[in-house]
Amino acid sequence: MSTDGVSSGATRGRPRSDQVDQAILHAASALLVERGLDAMTIEEVAARAGVGKSSIYRRWPTKGTLALDAFLDSFLAQQPRVDTGALEDDLAEALTLWSAAVVGTPTGRALVGLIAESQLDEELARGWIERVMKPVRAQHRTMVERAIERGEIPVDSDVDVIMDLLYGAAYHRLLQGHLAITPAFIETVARMVAQGAKSGAAVAR
Amino acid sequence: MSTDGVSSGATRGRPRSDQVDQAILHAASALLVERGLDAMTIEEVAARAGVGKSSIYRRWPTKGTLALDAFLDSFLAQQPRVDTGALEDDLAEALTLWSAAVVGTPTGRALVGLIAESQLDEELARGWIERVMKPVRAQHRTMVERAIERGEIPVDSDVDVIMDLLYGAAYHRLLQGHLAITPAFIETVARMVAQGAKSGAAVAR
After folding, report:
1. Which residues pair with A157 in a beta bridge?
2. Which of A2, A26, B29, B59 has the most CB atoms around it within 10 Å of its CB?
3. Is the pLDDT confidence value at A121 over 70?
């Protein structure tokens, strides 16, 4: 009855496979927190999950793509939608939530590890954009779209540049470590981005 | 005559040591361009420079710190001071020079490799801040200080936040790869940051 013509034990394949996937993801999550992506090995994940390495490589071709899946649910759950009714407050609140999720946390260590690894692993880089950047940005851009609907900022404002300024400033400090991400920093960044957008500066010329 | 009490061949040590250092740095620069920091090994650098590995490890404890030195001169030389007489134009010009130096170039590959490696190598992370971020920022902040002197923006504007917005937005696209760094992007970022600063939004409350 298999639809793809593959018959090797396929009748029990799906439920067993889901359990194996969950065991692998849980093991990877724990190891990411304990020692970080660079020190994590597929061997360790396999040992802790009680599966063979081939079970891992069948679904995740590199440790980076496995770590991405292990990271994703926890990060996205910590980035809820905000809606205060004012652009500057929305931006400050969203950046405060992001900061709480990643500054000095296991999630943040996984985040910077994944960004570092994605410079070396093209498949991970593609997965990062498709599975992290795009869904997170789709969620964040509703803040700017509501500001447009309210008439706070011009209708043809470049939403991507607004997002790049807000999160780019914060990622800059997170990744390069030259200065701390403080509440005062978050407030000033949110005010700068909101005031710039209100002035019409985000409209492409 | 040695002032530090070390006498092992010290009389000819300094000039020979400088030549060895230069040979090591040239070999590391070439390998960084050819294959990137992740694939570069100290063994290869030693072989190409015609020195023993211990000659390298004596001065550079990790390959990251060696790569930092090999990267530094070329990057800093490509970030000259700009002074157009207007903040927005200065910011756009500086970001255009940065983009020309790093987008799709060997210098850019070395740059992202070093940022990635600095997430794993604390000594490199410290070196990155002290030897790249601080001197580059000291140079860039003169753009904002001149805008303050001209009365374009308030005297108590937060220069670091202004720099983090400008370069953070650009590093965000460079490192995360979700969108391209285009001339239109650079113009809009420069306009947003300049207009936000002119509105007084960069003054801490």
Report:
1. A203
2. B29
3. yes
The Cα–Cα gap between A67 and A115 comes to 11
**Residue A172 with chain B: CB contacts under 8 Å:** 164, 167-168, 171-172
pLDDT in tens, B92-118: 999 999 999 999 988 888 899 999 999
**What ranges in B11-51 are assigned the alpha helix state H?**
13-35, 42-49
- The pTM of this model reads 0.83
Distance from CA of B37 to the nearest CA of A (A): 10
How many other C-beta atoms are found inside a 10 Å radius of the C-beta of residue A7? 10
Given B112, B167, B200, which is nearest A172 (Cβ)?
A: B167
Written as six digits, the tokens of A140 are 């964040």
> How far apart are the CA of B93 and the nearest CA of chain A, in angstroms?
17
For A52-178, strand residue ranges (E) read none
**Residue B171 contacts A where some CB pair is shorter than 8 Å:** yes
- 3-class SS at A48? helix
